Protein 1
Amino acid sequence: MSKNKNCLGHRERLRKRYSILGYHGLLDYEILELILSFVIPRKDTKELSKNLMSNFNTLENVFKADIKTLCKFNGITERIAIYLKLLGDLSLCLFEDKINKQNLNLELKTKDQLINYLKNNIGFCKNETFKVLFLDTSNKIISFETLFTGTIDKSAIYPRKILERVLFHNARSIVFAHNHPSGNTSPSRKDIEITKAMEKFFKLVDVNIIDHIIIGKNSYFSFLEEGII
């Protein structure tokens, strides 16, 4: 009984610290501990939180881990794993809702905003995924679409397909993005060749390629920042 009272008291102190200081008032494992306390109401979640952080290193990696991997940890049921996975998908859902529901009124203001979205969307994918961001003349987002999946090479990327979508959306600028499941975001020779070929192709139809971003779990590579585009 005493141990249970101590656990409840500790949780209450965490909640109060969060309510007063916010996210930055807690350590990462404490944030995870607090989150788990809502789905594990009668057990201490401190050691479980520390164990998860020790294995995944970051909160983001915990939230983006697949359900089967999470269920391998003692104390994590499928229900809890789904809950953590859902939290990890929230930022992605919120970003996409802005695109789909705000009457195309979301302006791409910062690179960080885009990178965070891409990390959540494709940074943890096990297969390569090629996405295109379509923008109007004011750099407002029209649409963000997955056009190709699988190994990205010349035979897989069809300029005609991308052009069809550009014309459909009446886009004036586009951003390419794809992930490297290995986590190494350095561009391959094929990545560079495809990008240069695409840039040349779309100049002919007066469409500007703003950037091509290679995304990984913990890093990204920007063709614009590196002077390739």
Note: Residues 2-91 form one domain.
Protein 2
Amino acid sequence: MEIYLVGGAVRDELLGYPVYDQDWVVVGATPEQMLARGFKPVGQDFPVFIHPESGEEYALARTERKSGKGYTGFQYHASPDVTLEEDLIRRDLTINAIAKSANGELIDPYNGQQDLQLKLLRHVSEAFVEDPLRVLRVARFAARYAHLGFRVADETIALMQQLSAGDELEHLTAERVWKELERALGEPSPMVFFDVLFQAGALEVLLPELLPLYQNGELDGIADKVTRGSNSCNRFSVLLTLATASLESPTALALIESLCERLRSPKLYREQALHCRQWYQALQRFDQISGEERLELIGGVDLLRREQRLSGLLACSEALSGGRSSPLNQALPALLVQLNAIAPKQLMAEGFKGKALGTEIARRQLQLCEQFSLEIDNG
């Protein structure tokens, strides 16, 4: 039995990146031998085990054969006679097909170290086209390492285009597409993910709502604004706001709603994307719009009950304005405190009841919103 560290841990160590997770391949072992050593089995498709102490994954060396559509359409063969080289050749990129032995020796049969030096994301073998998920994974790796100068090899782009031209991408589940998209939005160069998908012909299949971004010739500015979103949720909101900029608000909101429904994106992402698209312009002009418009924005986002939405919305507005800092970061929370200080019980003690109570609350809210512009002007 021989155990090797494989995949991302080896790659990132060679790149000088911090290593958070380690995956291992076991050559020459049977499931029974793993169980005898206290490993706990997980996974149904192929033998993967959890180390009893470290909790890390140990997979038996295996080969695979395409047997159906999508990224789950494979039959796996794991046995003691499967070699390390046979296991590594099934991986997506050469830089992910490097193994490290217990004594620190690097096993690199497919020239992953050379591609690290060349800063190339290159497929290991022609079997790349059997797994549609690799289109998204390669695009995500491109977003992660673009700032280091990495690019996708031309021949790998060609295989990605081949995958996109068929029907394999249609067999990716919404959950898997969203997982890769969300992770890509957290990478140093998030727009590179979509750039690569566009180049590969996959964007029109998976995310056609984003195609307008590639029709106005202002990608540099778009990439800067999306990156300024600072986290995945904010970047998602900024991205969809920019992608629907040419549409009327009702149409844009319906498109965003449809996209989020199709991707099954988390509620937080969907709500913030909708709020950002609908209100970011009013938020950027908050010191110029009327008291009625300010109150409409506050009510539309439900900020009096959900003030936690404000920080994300302000971050998105700032990113969309090119990073200009806004005085609203301090002033608007203060206004919400004042609005929430309007106490119905106090007004009832003053004699307001029924419809008159609601009218008085609305009057005082509007008065505070109208006075807010004086605070900005005098600040």
Note: The CA atoms of residues 192 and 230 lie 16 Å apart.
Protein 3
Amino acid sequence: MVDRLLVDVGGARLACQVSGPSDAPPLVLLHALTVDGADWDGVAPAFAVGRRVYAVDLRGHGRSERPGQYSLELMRDDVLGLLDAVGVERADVIGHSMGGVVAYLFAEEYPERVDRLILEDVPAPHPRRPSLSIRPAGTLPFDWEMVLAVRSQLDTPDPAWLERLGAITAETLVLAGGPRSWVSQEGVAELARRIPAGRAITIPAGHLIHRAEPRAFTEAVAGFLGLPDSPP
């Protein structure tokens, strides 16, 4: 059974899909840019066997509020607000792509709130060539102003993001998508090296590992978190 919550975190109202036993250890899922918590639907049921799963729509995405103020740091603090609102002291956190950046920023800033961290095809934060931003036609399931704000930060990341990776105390698994991914795999490997308790494995599925290879993804996560092996 999946419950749908709307949680006021102070700066925005967040939508969240919640599944799994209410007394199980919590697991937070953070999605990539322009999708939402439903992006995890293919793997969340496997995690919900042994975890209380919170699949969040980050601000400006999906059913969450579009407050007009956007940054990855605000999204980071929204995660803190969500945990406080639902009474969760510490959680395991999985982040994909942009959600992975939010996840490691959260682990840098609030290490006492993270048990274990899983980062899916996320490179170390270095400046990159700006991407061309053309608004798609029609009604969008996300705020286009949010996309512009986040891409600007990803193109020119705060140097402190890189410097503070060494402050992450959580045991961390970095999943690399291999040569089919558009993300720099050298950058993904560097991210794992810079996190003190980090290690990397490659699942050669491209950038969308959890969608392209859900069984391999859930097996890797289950092994790392000590979950029952029940892939979708």
Note: The first strand starts at residue 2 and ends at 8.
Protein 4
Amino acid sequence: MSVAAQDRPPMELPGYVPVYSGKVRDLYAPIDSATGQTQQDALLLVASDRISAYDYVLDSEIPDKGRVLTQMSLWWFEQFESLIPHHVLSTDVPSQVAGRALLVRRLPMVPVECIGRVYLTGSGLSEYQERGSVCGVQLPAGLLEASRLPEPIFTPTTKAPLGEHDAPMTYAQVAEEIGEALAARVKEATTAILARGGQIAAERGILIADTKVEFGLDHAAAQDGVPGLVLADEVLTPDSSRFWRAEHWEPGRTQRSYDKQYVRDWLTSSESGWDRHAGGPPPPLPADVVAATRATYIEAYEALTGKDFV
């Protein structure tokens, strides 16, 4: 992560105390006006316009990105209400962050990155080409870039500290980390969200290749001693997922996407002059890449929801 991004001070929000600043989102605890103490059951989740790639937070921001991610997540939370509860309490937030913040339940989080894949690409493709499997899941021989998998698979990674690289995990490692029963529920929920989201998106001309989801743990809703799962953070956005245009899908080549692949491609091009393996931070994005990325995020939102972005 670049120094400028890392040292950015938190926003001052009257009635809230900064708790944590991540790659893209910032967390604030509400202050109880009666006691002056921070509330322990709620958080203000603010989506910034920051963008990350290759485990770096870039110095360049994408205008309106935080609003797009928040509004898209809200739309998806509604689609999944019959599948899994979500963490949103209210959209009544301070005016400084209106449209890009949510008041949410404060919950302990599942300590692994829950990733589901239904098309083969990215790091999953690289691992498959080396081993014939992804995160211990054996796959059919002869698959290509962007090949559709027989069914959604669970390919978790570690949740590395900010600025460090996540490492692939097998299901057995997840079970060892959080327990077999909870691991089974996390796997089932991750693949179910991807499968259902993929059906909805396909009706709108979009393929969801893979996604990362976050789960909170609701101990009050435990069954057989296993906490209930709550869908948290963001869900099926261009930041957490790969979206492809269905009409252009063709295995064996790189796909046209609605996500931040545009940024990744520029960073690894000769134009950027950046060597991702050299250890230095990425350069700022040129204005045309910023504008094109913003347009891509808005296009994804409007294509999925059928709504105009305001």
Note: The first helix runs from residue 3 to 6.
